[in-house]
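Re: the pair you flagged

First of the two:
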Amino acid sequence: MRNTASAQEITGAIFHARLDLTHPLGYGYDSPDVFLFRDHTVFMERSASPYANPLMYTARPLASGFISKPNELKLRGTAAVDIADVGAGRIVSLVDNPNFRAFWYGTNKLFLNSIFFGQLMRATPSQAAEE
């Protein structure tokens, strides 16, 4: 019997995600195509609210590297970012490290936007926007 457990690990690959450019997290981006470095098998489910997931993995996420077929199926269409309202504040969860080794500069904006514009983000539409 062959040992295939290591084939189920994601040890470093690049994946394609789509960013909602109208969301505060997308400030400064010209294209909705974002490429994320991933080195783990943590997957976030999509929220019921579209406002909570401004960055989602695509249906064909692998851009470069290796991912097993079962893990690719788990990754497709999942959230790369999740926003949760907690009391008067919010939590912005980024499943991947946008500052990985300080050379993956294309995603540093995600991290900075989550800090600088966090007060503008909501997991659900604001009541003012609904009126």
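Second of the two:
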Amino acid sequence: MNRHPGGEAQTLYLLENIEWKKEMKALDLGAGEGDSIRILKSLGMDAHGVDLFPRGSDVETGDFLHLQYPSDSIDLCISQCAFFVSRDQKNALSECWRVLKKGGFLLLSDLDTGNLSEMAEQTGFTILRQEDQTLLWREYYLEAIWNDSFCCEEYKILQKEYKGKKLRYTMVVGRKE
């Protein structure tokens, strides 16, 4: 199966890094069309998702920088290709920390200027796994540009802002201890 950032295989790959259970309350941040939500629900999780501009019926309108969920109420936060676009990864991580229960998991794959894992640690997460997925991202991004995909519009703006800076694509799996 072809795996790309934000795709079904990537969601399942992220989940392979934790001991997930049915009935977990999961929250997808930057949920878009709701693909990850549907996967999480198919695994028996109580899954929800927020996005500023939802493109799916399973996705609520919401800002993951200001979540409308109570503190210590979520077992799993997942986000793919969204924190970077918020331009405030530190606040996004803090919001995940706030809503996660003790022992809750953070599954994150995103663009990274080199300190995403460090920011997660500074927020308080124990890093269980970190993986450089830059080659995977490059393949996906080129395919998306080739196909004139909607997903690339926001990255065109970021290209100008980060021109000349080294961007990576990083997967971070963390836990709130």
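The mean pLDDT is 86.

-B.
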